[in-house]
Specification:
Largest sheet: 7 strands, mixed
Structural class: alpha/beta
Radius of gyration: 16 Å
Bound molecules: 5-O-phosphono-beta-D-ribofuranosylamine
Oligomer: single chain
């Protein structure tokens, strides 16, 4: 059984798509907690509406890195987390947390990595850069998380065609539709292979 922690900073549509798919398709995986670094993020309220324990944990609440990291690790351990999904999490995960979950942390990125990834490539910046580069296609990537931004091994990608009339906003909407399918599908595959 996968006991998943979702880390997110924003509205949480990927969290919601994952939560709905897991329960509707009877996948042996559950989101057991949600952690956000942003107290006003929609994802916290959304998670609570599904009765999922959701926490605002931000570095600013702690005087040092170590206690911040300890709080996150303790929360993960309290809920028996054995798999982590980053879904729009705008903060780099601490290296010790990454090392505590080897090959068990994935991220969804709204472009075809390795293109359009790295520092500063988040949210609408990604889609604006793709449009500005005159790309003919974009898509979504699910990848393992390592200590660099958007750099871990690619697990799955799905593509969309970019029309000449597309804007960053219309492209974001197209890619989001794909994200909502791709992320749950990848988690389903992990749930079939990870048995602990
Ligand atoms: C998604 O586009 C995701 O790929 C990116 O951040 C966005 C989060 O959207 N990493 P939401 O909060 O899941 O709606």
């Amino acid at each position: 059984m996968l006991n998943i922690a979702v880390f997110a900073s924003g509205r949480g549509s990927n969290f919601e798509a994952l939560q709905r798919t897991l329960s509707e398709k009877n996948i042996p995986a559950a989101i057991v907690t949600v952690i956000s670094n942003n107290s006003s993020s929609g994802v916290l309220a959304l998670a609570r509406s599904f009765n999922i324990p959701a926490f605002h944990i931000s570095q600013r609440q702690f005087s040092d890195e170590g206690s911040y990291r300890k709080k996150i690790l303790e929360t993960l351990s309290t809920f028996g987390v054995n798999f982590i999904v980053l879904a729009g999490y705008m903060k780099k995960l601490d290296a010790e947390i990454i090392r505590a979950y080897p090959q068990r942390i994935i991220n969804i990125h709204p472009a075809l990595l390795p293109k359009f990834g790295g520092a500063g490539m988040y949210g609408m910046n990604v889609h604006a850069a793709v449009i500005a580069a005159g790309e003919k296609e974009s898509g979504a990537t699910v990848h393992y998380v390592n200590e660099q931004y958007d750099d871990g091994g690619i697990i799955a990608q799905e593509r969309v065609t970019i029309a000449s009339t597309d804007t960053a906003e219309s492209l974001a909407a197209k890619v989001l539709t794909i994200e909502h399918r791709l992320l749950p599908e990848v988690v389903r595959q992990f749930s079939a292979t990870i048995k602990d």
